[in-house]
Amino acid sequence: MIAPIALTCGEPAGIGAEIAPLARAALPDLPFFWIGDPRHLIPGTRFKVIGSPAEALRLAPDTLPVLAHDFDGPATLGQARPEHAKDVIAVIARAVELVQSGQASALCTLPIHKKALKDGAGFAFPGHTEYLAHLAGDVPVVMMLASDTLRVVPATIHEALSDVPRLLTADLLEEVIRLTHAGLIRDFGIASPRIAVAGLNPHAGEGGAMGTEEITLIAPLLTRLKAEGLDLRGPLSADTMFHARARATYDAAICMYHDQALIPIKTLAFDEGVNVTLGLPFIRTSPDHGTGFDIAGKGLARADSTVAALAMAARMAAARSK
User: Which residues bind substrate per the record (predicted)?
Assistant: First the structure.
């Protein structure tokens, strides 16, 4: 039997403590456990503190297994507390240890608040992804947004649009393509991945009339990688890549910048999108939303993305086990 999935608590002032029991109710047959302070759970949550991840496999499906991690004080919904920052970080590190030791089959992370971690504990990483890559030995990683409808990978992420042409190098794009190709095989069980690659400019440059990066950078790289046997299509015009007939021709799309990738998937699967980190030696998924400070504790939080993230983590764990 595959080990249960570790679900980190994320920011205690956000909606994570509401989402975890909702996800448990939606996925009664999927074994996972929540790591956090039981005092932060919403009153009325049915839970049981466990001594080890394996105990999560034996609990009733209506009970949230909790691997307790004591925080410094209660949660204040909607307002992060600086004294919690060190424990939010410690929970992530603890979950990684459990996955790396085989006690958990995958890691699913609930949202953190980067500024709160920086202010409260001097957190030196832009976000979850970079910290996880550091814990794994500073391995190269890429961010994939995935759903049953579409998988996208942005080559550059949180960068000003004016900086993208400078940052988009052949070495970077090659690394993104190779990590995506390997991840589709290892984590999604796709033996021969088909990858669509967008151009940078409108109409993929239209033969140089609207930009030359497709001619000078993207196309030569794709030609070289295709000669190695990778199934790559492009550079393609981004405005025609995401309709249903186009999506049927590839397993993942690599885009050149943040919005080029995230607009289509958030249009097609706003509530079900999952953040997947490819390149790690362990599986990591996350819901594709933030801490939800504005709705925390109001009963408005939806668990759709977390449910999708846990279910995807389970499928990825099954794929790796093969």
Answer: 128-129, 266, 275, 284
- Please report the sign of the dihedral spanned by the C-alpha atoms of residue 156, residue 276, residue 93, residue 172: negative
List the one residue out of 221, 187, 218, 189 whose CA is nearest residue 204. Answer: 218
CATH code for position 205: 3.40.718.10
> CB neighbours of 13 closer than 8 A, spacing ≥ 6?
75, 76, 77, 78, 79, 80, 81, 84, 113, 116, 291, 293, 296
Q: How many CB atoms lie within 10 A of CB 207?
A: 10
What is the domain extent for residue 78? 1-139+281-322
Q: Is 128 annotated as a binding residue?
A: yes
275 is in an annotated binding site: yes
> For residue 46, what are the CA distances in angstroms to 21, 52, 61, 262?
8, 18, 10, 36
If asked whether residues 128 and 154 sit together in one domain, one would say no
Cβ contact 67:33 at 8 Å: yes
Tell whether 5 and 115 lie within a shared domain: yes
pTM: 0.91
CB 151 within 8 Å of CB 252: yes
283-316 per-position pLDDT tens digit: 999 998 889 999 998 989 999 999 999 999 999 9
Digit-coded pLDDT (tens) for 95-106: 999 999 999 999
Element (H, E) at 186: helix 170-186
Tokens linked to 138 = 């500073």
Q: Is 86 annotated as a binding residue?
A: no
- Are residues 175 and 246 both part of a single domain? yes
Residue 258 among known ligand-binding residues: yes
User: Residue 284 annotated as binding?
Assistant: yes
